[in-house]
Design goal:
This protein has about 725 residues and is an alpha+beta fold. It has 23 helices and 19 strands. The protein is globular, with a radius of gyration of 34 Å. It starts with a helix and ends in a 10-residue tail after the last helix.
């Protein structure tokens, strides 16, 4: 039995080590793509592990094993090329002719993978202590592989959540390797020379549980720390994802969405991934699709969402049934009907033309390529004639006026705004002058540069004079605010008329955009886009690529073929599939909130986990009506929990009474009487209410002595200590 257990542990250790090596090989292939394929490198690890295992079992000496390991890859290559020749004779064509080239493309980087995997496995099999050295070496390899992901620029994975999950699996795998190796080393050190007496059938599972307890204890301590690290890492990659998303979008838990806080980055990058499909009937127009309005401003952070004001203007999520959002009744607005077909943006995100007044989610058909479909009705400004005639500053409630004119007290920005609007008395004239000043005197750039004093906006306005859309929007909003014109920033997508095909517009990630909305009284919030259309010297960014006609045609065909299926979701009883979808959406929202509030969720979850492990098995017998025996045994277990928390645990083979006497002698805690009463509850023929009362008296004596001998901080830390969680006494 013991030999079988040790063999199982060795097999488990080999599997976990091989998993770690395969993880490193796969990520090396991801970094080297297209020069290396993931499948080839993973297969190389498997072959190297099997070869090393076979050589060790054959008891080859180190030098012959090294020679064999060096020769095997080239032997395999020769066999592969013979097979390729047979394939080329059987099937003429360029595909067969490319097989040797494709094999050699992977073969060269595969030699390094083979060498590491074989050597590590052979040495770990021959000398078990090498496992500890191997773990350190794999950590160094990990650092080297992730060096290219420095500054949180993630390229190995399409989403930071996948990266955090994968890295967490690798780290936990390595922790398990260390624990298993240490347990094997301890067993080897403590193995007696004399034969071991036969174990009873009941003692074997107990010894297995005892052997696994250190692994469980270490996991309980390491898992919260690992989660904190991974959540921190995920947050940093999500933060960097804002820069990688054009300074506006960021990864959510599973998809992408706009950030509720917009800052000025020194450099951004964009992608051309298709985000959604927009349909608006009529002549081609340029559209600003609003995702958020951001009215809050902090000079140290940037523009951010005020949840009360801004979500009232533009709700955050798509409702589950048709909903009226409220029409402010602003004049000179036209009704614009829009249909949205989401592909990669977070499916709960409400995107619409300013000002959405009604949203109608639409039923999605089976096999649809779209995540979410809905229809929005907006009261939109389609002409600037009415706004251009406004001369006097429109009225606004004093509290709102103070909020929408906060500009951080930046006098340089105010002086610039006064200079730009000097001599202009009309309200609309001053707004238009600021917009045209920025459009005509600054250049568009994805690389605005780093401000020496940390003030990116000043660097843009007074030094570099180049930036991307957020710089222009920040500048116009703050310049307007500094001269008493209420303004805010809006973020969403800029969809140019040139991308229209059959009333459909393909919206891609690089079209994420920021602009300004200015208060015009009974006209509402009017949009202004101050971003320059002239690229800075040295920029090779093309602002608006033509649509991907093949992909767009496929998506449009899908919509037109299922046009009759685009029915409004109704508020009636949900179908089972709808219930499942809503539950999944709710789970996503909960997980997203957990990521956002990780510094609260993780400690609370950790405490609940400990409470469940330490107190859970005993609570039903204590809180619910149960026999006296069950209650006494549950209370005794809680006493063991308290003792285990401060490091007092039973040794292997030690009886309860022996343990109790040792605790009394070593620590002065009155446990013997309680242990004796527990044994009565466990083994006595009768255990009635009187016996339970005697047990409770012994328990009170134990608690008094425990509180006297162990100080309060130690008792509290003992409850939070994950080590030494005792099993249910037997």
């Amino acid at each position: 039995m013991r030999l079988a257990s040790e063999q199982g542990n060795r097999t488990t250790l080999l599997a976990l080590r091989s998993l770690a090596l395969a993880w490193l090989a796969v990520h090396a292939a991801l970094l080297l793509r297209p020069l290396a394929s993931v499948g080839f490198q993973a297969g190389t690890v498997a072959a190297a592990v099997l070869a090393a295992f076979a050589m060790e079992r054959a008891r080859l000496r180190l030098l012959p094993a090294l020679l064999a390991a060096a020769a095997l890859p080239f032997v395999a290559r020769g066999v592969a090329f013979l097979v390729f020749q047979l394939v080329q004779r059987a099937a003429d064509g360029p595909g067969a002719d490319l097989l040797p080239l494709l094999f050699d493309r992977d073969f060269v980087p595969g030699l390094a993978v083979w060498a590491v995997a074989w050597l590590f496995t052979f040495l770990a099999q021959r000398r078990p202590g090498f496992v500890f050295v191997e773990t350190g070496l794999t950590a160094l390899i990990l650092v080297g592989l992730l060096w290219g992901q420095a500054h949180y620029r993630l390229t190995l994975y399409p989403h930071p959540s996948l990266f955090a999950l994968s890295l967490g699996v690798f780290i936990f795998d390595e922790i398990a390797v260390l624990l298993l190796a240490r347990a094997a080393e301890s067993r080897a050190e403590n193995t007696p020379v004399v034969p071991i007496p036969a174990l009873s059938a009941g003692s074997v599972p107990r010894q297995r549980r005892a052997a696994s307890r250190p692994l469980l204890s270490f996991a309980l301590a390491a898992l919260p720390l690992l989660l904190v690290f991974l959540f921190f890492l995920l947050a940093r990659y999500r933060e960097s994802g804002t820069a990688a998303g054009g300074g506006l979008t960021k990864p959510t838990l599973f998809r992408f969405d706009f950030s509720q806080l917009v800052r000025l980055e020194s450099e951004i990058s964009t992608t051309d991934d298709t985000v959604l499909l927009l349909r608006v009937d009529g002549e081609a127009e340029t559209w600003l699709l609003r995702r958020f309005v951001l009215s809050g401003y902090d000079p140290r952070q940037g523009f951010f969402i005020d949840r009360g004001r801004d979500f009232a203007e533009h709700p955050q999520t798509i409702p589950d049934a048709p909903a009226d959002l409220g029409d402010p009744g602003w004049r000179d607005r036209e009704t614009v009907e829009q249909e949205y077909f989401f592909l990669s943006i977070d499916p709960g995100s409400l995107v619409a033309v300013n000002q959405p007044v009604r949203v109608m989610p639409l039923k999605n058909w089976k096999g649809s390529p779209f995540l979410r479909i809905y229809r929005a009705t907006s009261a939109a400004v389609r002409s600037d004639e009415a706004a251009a005639r406004i001369q006097d500053a429109p009225a606004m409630e004093p509290g709102a006026f103070a909020w929408y004119t906060r500009y951080g007290g930046d006098e340089r920005i105010r002086e610039l705004a006064i200079e730009v609007t000097g001599g202009l008395a009309g309200y609309a004239e001053r707004v238009r002058a600021i917009e045209e000043w920025l459009r005509g005197n600054y250049l568009y750039s994805l690389h605005p540069g780093v401000a020496a004093d940390g003030n990116q906006l000043h660097h843009f306005l007074f030094e570099s004079r180049k930036g991307y859309c957020s710089y222009f929007a920040f500048a116009m909003a703050l310049m307007c605010r500094s001269v008493g014109i209420p303004a805010r920033v809006a973020v969403g997508f800029l969809v140019p008329r040139e991308t229209e095909v059959l009333n459909f517009y393909e919206v891609r990630a690089f079209q994420a955009h920021a602009w300004v909305e200015v208060w015009f009284g009974d006209l509402g919030w009017i949009e202004f886009d101050p971003t320059s259309q002239e690229l800075a010297p040295g920029e090779d960014f093309t602002p608006f690529l033509g649509p991907d006609l093949d992909e767009l045609a496929r998506l449009i065909r899908q919509v037109l073929e299922h046009q009759d299926a685009l029915e409004e979701e109704q508020a009636g009883p949900p179908t089972p599939s709808e219930t499942l979808s809503r539950l999944a959406a709710g789970a996503v929202r909960i997980l997203s909130a957990a990521v956002r509030w990780w510094f609260v969720v993780l400690p609370a979850g950790y405490l609940l986990l400990l409470a469940g492990l330490k107190l859970g098995p005993s609570l039903p017998s204590i809180l619910l009506p149960r026999p006296q025996r069950s209650r006494a045994k549950a209370l005794y277990r809680l006493a063991l929990v308290l003792l285990a928390g401060v490091g007092a645990v039973r040794r292997g083979g030690e009886s309860h009474l022996e343990f109790a006497r040792r605790i009394l002698a070593d620590r002065g805690i009155a446990l013997p009487d309680l242990a004796a009463r527990y044994l009565d509850a466990e083994f006595a023929h009768d255990f009635d209410a009187g016996d339970l009362a005697t047990f409770l008296e012994a328990r009170s004596t134990f608690h008094r002595s425990f509180r006297q001998r162990v100080r309060l901080p130690s008792r509290v830390l003992g409850l939070l200590n994950p080590f030494g969680v005792p099993a249910v006494p037997r």
